[in-house]
Design goal:
The complex is a heterodimer.
Chain A: H1 6-18, H2 23-29, H3 31-58, E1 61-62, E2 71-72, H4 76-82, H5 85-116, H6 124-136, H7 139-149, H8 156-163, H9 180-204, H10 209-217, H11 222-249, H12 253-259, H13 271-279, H14 288-328
Antiparallel strand pairs in A: 1-2
Helix pairs in contact in A: 4-14, 5-9, 5-11, 5-13, 6-9, 7-12, 9-11, 11-14, 13-14
Chain B: H1 13-22, H2 27-33, E1 68-74, H3 79-93, E2 97-103, H4 106-119, E3 125-126, H5 134-139, E4 143-144, H6 153-159, E5 171-172, E6 175-176, E7 178-182, E8 190-194, H7 195-200, H8 212-226, E9 231-234, H9 240-253, E10 258-259, E11 262-263, H10 274-289, H11 301-309, E12 313-318, H12 320-329, E13 335-339, E14 351-352, E15 357-363, H13 369-379, H14 382-392, H15 401-407, H16 413-423, E16 426-427, H17 431-434, H18 438-444, H19 452-460, H20 467-493, H21 515-519
Parallel strand pairs in B: 1-2, 1-3, 9-12, 14-16
Antiparallel strand pairs in B: 3-15, 4-15, 5-6, 7-15, 8-12, 8-13, 10-11
Helix pairs in contact in B: 1-2, 1-9, 3-14, 8-10, 9-10, 9-19, 14-15, 18-20
The chains are: A mainly alpha, B alpha/beta.
Amino acid sequence: MAMLRPAERLAGADRTSGSPTTLRERLWNSRWCYVFMLPSLVLGALFTLYPMISSWYISFTDWSGLESDKRFVGVENYREAVGDAAFWSAFGRTFAFTAVAVPVMLILALFAALVLNDASLRMRAVFRTMFFLPVVTTTAIVGVVMSLIMNPFDGPLNAVLLDLGLIDRPVDFLGDPDLALWSVAGVFVWKWMGMSMIYWLVALQTVPQELYEAARVDGCTRRQTHRHITVPMITPFAVVIILITFVGALQTFPLVQSMTQGGPAFATELVELYIYRLAFAADFTPRLGYASAVAVFFGITVLIFTLAQVWGVRRAGAMQSDVKEVNRR
Amino acid sequence: MTQRRTLPGAGRPTRRTFLAASAGLGAAALAGLSGCGGGFGGGDGSGGGTDLEFDIPDPAGDFPSTDVTIRLVDSGDTKADFWNAFAEAYQAKHDNVTFQYDPLPWNRIEEVVPLGIRNNSAHDLIQLPGNIPLSQAVSEGWVAPLDDYMPDFADWQQRFPDTYQVEGVHVFDGQQYIVPIGTDQRHFQIIHYNKQLMNDAGFDPETEPLTWDTYREAARKVTEQGDGQAYGVIFEINQPGRLVQWVEYMARMAGLPIVGNILQPSGEFHHDSDEIVAAIELMLALQQDGSVFPGSSSLTAPECWPRVVRGNAAMVSAGPWVTALWDRDEPDFDFGVAPLPFPNENPWPPGYVTIGGDMLTMFAGSKVKEVAGDVLGYVTSLDGQTRWAENAGVGNPPVLAEAREAGSTDYSDQAKTCLELAEAMVGNPEPVIANPDVALVTKHEQPPDPGFADVLQAILVGEVSDVRKALREVKDRAERARDEAIAKAAKVDGSTATRDDWIFPNWDPTKDYTIEDYDGR
């Protein structure tokens, strides 16, 4: 350790004597920070923490949500969920939906972002707005309008497909159990692609322009530039974008509810709709306790992906540092 | 005054409430049943009710003199026309009273009412959703007895039929907790048809009722002549509770001895009965003929009705609330109403639940119980019931037969036909009247999942190949669920209900089952 000179030691001593030493002093000195945090903390505790903890507790009870007494049943609800074929069907459907919708959305969004990131493109702000418009449109409205567009009797989508000769009879996009989920997935991709596109644009805009200029000077083709500069530079962001989009795709309640209500014949009943049916829209006495257990189970699944996201961010940070280090050399 | 339009899709509880009523859920279920029409609006305050003259009597007893607000929530539909007009009249009569009427779709009621009860901010008068059995509301202390608040209650008891004052259904420990305003003596399944399309195809169901064969033939001809622009029938396949009603009406008219969904006298569930299977096969035959409107698989009832008005489909099966709707909103539309087709010459009359509909109960935490009692007293008086018949119309007929008759003089021909069809219905026995503990069983019963409605929907969208096997499996699940619920109710609540409470050996499917008949079973 380097030895401090007397003057430096003195200055250090002065700083030490002027800084808070006790927890009480430190809290007092930071009081305004805590005051400003208070509303957020209170609201967070009321509307996030309390419902979350409450749902954990309820998941261990046999409770309709109406009675004053909750009957504690231990892990019985979880045991039932594990053997519940309807739950696992919904679970499988949810992940199938996500496995298809997420890659399609990400690829289309990346393609759109690459095109719209080109500074030479005229009216790119208009195009970006057009892609983003569905994101800010009310989901329920999108669902209802899309149901009309996909109507097999007089929906414009069938009319266009028939006119183009792509089909020879109208397709019942939302009424056919084999098609309904993928029709909803298509609308989901269209609705949220703009958001992913914005993520990609942010990522693309972090790539230093001088790298592209250098590549151009070196005679790289567009493809080589994408492969050797764009892709490595945005890969750390891609990890985050993929995980955010994946988690978002697990939460599709408003769109599915407004388009198919989980039908036909449960073909589009994803986990969120199944939970809703158990808790609120049951054809019998609601089962808030069991619905909570299913929700907690599902929530843990989402949590696992969120943790993966955190891990991905850290890995991404490490990768970015590596790329910068290579570039520096 | 809060006025909200009832949203499409409000008919969703139909399935729950119908099944629940079939299982003898009782009063609360009936409150839900009245919403079967689904939401088709109303509540804009511009109904014909503004011309009504309400002869509201002076209040008796302790009526508040300070400014107060009374709040009422129900499922709207054609009821909204009555309540909006009544609210104006009531406020004119009592200038210190603000009448807040909130017509809501059932899914909103299912959220709003429990939350209000928990927060002690519920409406003063409530149409209970099907997920809150009245017995539970009473035992939890959520609702108040009405005897002390309705004016001249003894007179009311004399005026109202016995089947609306049943212990365990409306009455608990000798006190009335719920008041039916309407009757459920109405056809939930009437063919509503586009006259031009049907007449062009050579059929007129009003003059010559349809058989199963002519129904199919008419649908095929309309489809042929429509050349892709019009189809014979439209089904609300995405609202499968309505399909259950359709199948059960068809099967009952075809001679299936069912009370709700229970076969008599065996006491078994009806799901795999021959008549049920035959009715489903008729639906499938219509599909195979290409006579069903494309896209029916994703349609709910309120989405089907306009297709008939527009001439895209010739026939839809709907309740009298659609008659009232078209009378009000489609004055130039030429339509007819007729009973569902039947396969033989002497169809059995459909049954109805005798314990009432459109029931209101009073929140125990209400600060204006005297006002609430006064309102209930008026709407169940002859004058109130007549105004109800005039304004709520044929979709929600009043309890009192005299009011039904007096209030229907200006009805359309179609509405009068609906009333005639309803008159021909017979009152079903109610297991919950036979033994009030049936309500406890219902509380514990978790109907099979997938249930009958789900399986029906799956059959119609092509997900089931062996119809009878799928129905047998539903039946087996339903039987198990009922047995388990009976055992659980006995263990947890001390229920005395047994499977015998669903059996009525002295039931004649062509006659009303009266209160006296319960003693003879």
